[in-house]
């Protein structure tokens, strides 16, 4: 399904977020408190927008993994075509990978991120435990995900837009008949709310958990630290 919409995925993201999706990713990078010696793993990286944002921010290394070959093909093409003007920017690496079974040793990364992907994981708590495992002590987790706005008028508008308008227009733009853009709004409805997600993050062992809602609650960033008690 995601392979079917990969070619126009970035265009649909820009159009149907009214250009806000890149600002949301920029905020996620800021919350990660990135350092020049940090190694980053971006899970469910898709076409690499958040992965590229971490690379531009000056990480030591950035790795993106995804389940969908067509998405990874586009991410790799973007990485080749990108003109890195800053000396601190590096080229991301992309690999096929499963969020619930990461093929990396314990304590491999300083930051683990996932944007608009945790709701598509079969067992989110299992994936979050994997994120904890591969993070080094002091490492940070950043989860960017859609959610239901708490402000009633915005919730009504967002519901109408996501259920009635976006599935039609996005499917036309993508030339898609797989039903991907009908599935995506339903996946937001049925996924955990931010409070439940924060609970899952805490259950995995993270501390210093914070949440920040963006654009009147359309999406939220959940972050946490891997703190090992001495």
Give the strand tally: 7
Poorly predicted spans: none
Discrete helix count: 9
Strand order of the largest sheet: 3-2-1-4-5-7-6
Helicity, as a percent range: 40-55%
What does this structure look like?
There is one protein chain. The chain is an alpha/beta fold and 230 residues long. The protein has one domain (17-149, 192-225): Rossmann fold (3-Layer(aba) Sandwich). The chain contains 9 helices and 7 strands, in the order αααβαβαββαβαααββ. It has helices spanning 2-5, 9-16, 21-31, 49-57, 69-81, 124-134, 152-174, 180-190, 194-203, and strands at residues 39-43, 61-66, 93-96, 109-115, 135-146, 207-214, 219-225. The chain has a 7-stranded mixed beta sheet, sandwiched between helices. Helix 6 (124-134) links the parallel strand 4 and strand 5. Helix 7 packs antiparallel against helix 8 (180-190). The longest helix is centred in the C-terminal third of the chain and has 23 residues, at 152-174. The chain is globular and about 50 Å long. The model has no long low-confidence stretch (mean pLDDT 90).
């Amino acid at each position: 399904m995601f392979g079917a919409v990969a070619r126009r995925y970035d265009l649909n993201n820009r159009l149907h977020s009214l250009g806000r999706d890149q600002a949301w990713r920029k905020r996620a990078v800021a919350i990660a408190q990135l350092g020049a010696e940090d190694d980053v793993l971006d899970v469910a990286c898709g076409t690499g927008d958040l992965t590229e944002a971490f690379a531009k921010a000056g990480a030591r290394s950035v790795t993106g993994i995804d389940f969908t070959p067509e998405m990874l093909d586009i991410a790799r093409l973007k990485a080749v075509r990108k003109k890195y003007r800053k000396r601190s920017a590096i080229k991301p690496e992309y690999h096929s990978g499963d969020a619930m079974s990461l093929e990396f040793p314990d304590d491999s990364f300083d930051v683990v991120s996932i944007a608009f992907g945790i709701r598509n994981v079969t067992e989110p708590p299992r994936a979050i435990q994997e994120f904890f495992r591969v993070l080094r002590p002091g490492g940070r987790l950043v989860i960017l995900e859609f959610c239901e706005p708490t402000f009633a008028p915005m919730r009504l508008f967002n519901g109408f837009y996501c259920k009635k308008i976006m599935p039609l227009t996005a499917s036309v733009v993508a030339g898609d008949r797989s039903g991907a853009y009908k599935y995506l709004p339903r996946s937001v409805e049925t996924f955990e709310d931010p409070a439940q997600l924060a609970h899952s993050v805490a259950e995995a062992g993270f501390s210093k958990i914070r949440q920040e809602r963006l654009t009147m609650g359309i999406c939220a960033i959940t972050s946490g630290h891997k703190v090992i008690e001495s």
